[in-house]
Design a protein that fits this description.
The protein is mostly helical and 521 residues long. Helices cover 67% and strands 0% of the residues. The chain has two domains: 406 residues, Ammonium transporter AmtB like domains (Ammonium transporter fold), CATH 1.10.3430; 32 residues, no CATH class. The protein is built from 18 helices and no strands.
């Protein structure tokens, strides 16, 4: 009898414990569902506030731990960060040269990866046109960078004792390296950008950034911009937007002189391309059938293949920006990995909670968001800080993508919500988590006793956004005087592959193929 009573009591306790655990979980779930469908009650709002506080406190704990352990970095990093009392002049290094050449190849490989990523997200009748927009950037910028792009980005005249440019060269480089005049293959650059690798290696590495940056813009305007208009947009944008902005940040120009930190392209690449994409999508207007019927990716495996290529390429993007094969490249490599993983995890979890199912496109987008967010910070932050940056960037981009959908703004492939928002969040958080314990050539951020760095980062973000927005608006207005920016409505219906390129991706018959053949005659 006593055993039976004990069993009943034990069973009752288990039920009571199970109920006490299930009730709050169920309550949280119901609150999230009501928020997701846009019908939150007061109880749901309270629950959301509690979740935000709990999540924020967790992130704060990680950030504080990162701050407290800043002085306890791996000895190899700390030793490498501390400069010797009497450093020897740097010499050309074959290891550094090999790493930067490999990184250049990895960054170039990112552009075909972007082609697959974007190509899988569009409808099958536009996949070739979408991929061609990335490939043609490789063709155009690969030539213009040699002829004039590189000199506009990195040529600078410095007086003795000067570190940064004066006058007009605060905004754009000189013309001394037109056609690679004086850009040696057997000696480093005379400015001091990369003292241990040949000048031409530095030049070709920077070329790869210029290529993929303008290709990123295409994601917002696919399935409606004419290929001819985008061809000339690449020429003008890479010349008048990318090169001056790269000069201002990396070429001893205005933003560099301000002390803005951008290790691998948060402002130069992601904010410029994201804001330009936003302006271009607004100027061209939405696709003809936008919001009239579902527009879904035609090939998700293409998307995931693109994500994988982009992630691998990003090791050259961030790790190569150390411009040498040392501990700084290691710091950037590790930060790149953990930030992407954290952002993908954050996107997966929040999508699972709010929408009920974790999607392949979602986790892929989360990975890309994390890679974007860590780009400006990769060589300035600890691994724990990189995790926080990844989580915050992933969540910010997730909500930006969903806000864009609610606003019914046709940024076709979420270029601004991922690259514009992700680049902005990453650039600002660089001013929070940067530490000279990781990179003595950088600066401390807010959490390391220097709130001024955060202000500098915000100013740099605003300047980059204004340059990109105004420049893109002017370029498209000028192009519109000479050509149609959009294809005709019937071309949107039939698909741009056959009308713009005369071929189909999968060999299927097109309804308008006969008409196209007659038109060609």
């Amino acid at each position: 009898m006593s055993k039976l009573m004990l069993h009943k009591r034990s069973k009752h306790k288990r039920r009571r414990f199970s109920g006490s655990f299930a009730r709050p979980v169920s309550s949280v779930w119901q609150s999230l569902v009501s928020l997701a469908i846009g019908e939150p009650d007061e109880r749901s709002k309270r629950m959301l506030r509690r979740l935000v506080v709990a999540f924020g406190l967790s992130l704060l704990a990680i950030a504080v731990f990162s701050l407290l352990t800043g002085a306890l970095l791996d000895p190899a990093v700390a030793q490498d960060a501390a400069a010797p009392a009497a450093p020897e002049p740097p010499k050309m290094d074959t290891g550094d040269t090999a790493w930067v050449l490999t990184s250049a190849a990895l960054v170039l490989f990112m552009t075909p990866g972007l082609a697959f990523f974007y190509g899988g997200l569009v409808r099958s009748r536009n996949v070739l046109n979408t991929m061609m927009m990335s490939l043609v950037a490789m063709a155009i910028v690969g030539v213009t960078w040699v002829l004039w792009g590189y000199t506009l980005a990195f040529d600078v005249t410095l007086a003795e004792g000067q570190t940064f440019a004066q006058g007009i060269q605060q905004f754009v480089g000189g013309l001394g390296w037109l056609g690679l005049n004086g850009v040696a293959a057997d000696a480093p650059d005379p400015i001091g950008y990369a003292a241990t690798i040949p000048h031409q290696v530095f030049m070709v590495y920077q070329m790869m950034f210029a290529i993929i940056t303008v290709a990123l813009v295409s994601g917002a305007i696919v399935e409606r911009i004419s290929f001819k208009a985008f061809f000339w947009f690449i020429v003008l944008w890479s010349t008048f937007i990318y090169s001056p902005l790269a000069h201002m940040v990396w070429g001893r120009g205005l933003l560099g002189a301000m002390g803005a930190l951008d290790f691998a392209g948060g402002t130069v690449v992601h904010i410029s391309s994201g804001v330009s994409a936003l302006v271009a999508a607004w100027m061209l207007g939405p696709r003809k059938d936008w919001m009239a019927k579902p527009v879904i990716p035609h090939n998700v495996p293409f998307v995931l293949l693109g994500v994988g290529i982009l992630w691998v390429g990003w090791f050259g993007f961030n790790g190569g920006s150390a411009l040498g094969a040392g501990s700084l490249a290691t710091v950037a490599f590790v930060a790149t990995t953990v930030s992407a993983s954290a952002a993908g995890l954050a996107w997966l979890v929040i999508e699972w909670l709010l929408k009920g199912k974790p999607t392949a496109v979602g986790i892929g987008s989360g990975f890309v968001a994390g890679l974007v967010g860590i780009t400006p910070a990769a060589g300035f932050v600890t691994p724990l800080s990189a995790i926080v940056i990844g989580v915050l960037t992933g969540l910010a981009c997730f909500f930006a993508v969903n806000l864009k959908a609610k606003l019914q703004f046709d940024d076709s492939l979420d270029t601004f919500p991922v690259h514009g928002v992700g680049g902005t969040v990453g650039a600002i958080l660089t001013g929070v988590f940067a530490t000279k314990a990781v990179n003595a050539a950088g600066n401390n951020g807010l959490f390391y006793g220097n709130p001024g760095q955060l202000v500098t980062q915000i100013i740099a973000v605003l300047i980059a956004a204004v340059i990109a927005a105004v420049g893109t608006f002017v370029i498209l207005k000028v192009l519109g005087l000479f050509m149609e920016l959009r294809v005709k409505p019937e071309v949107e219906d039939e698909g741009l592959d056959i009308y713009e390129h005369g071929e189909g991706a999968y060999g299927e018959e097109f309804a308008g193929e006969v008409a196209f053949a007659k038109q060609a005659e």
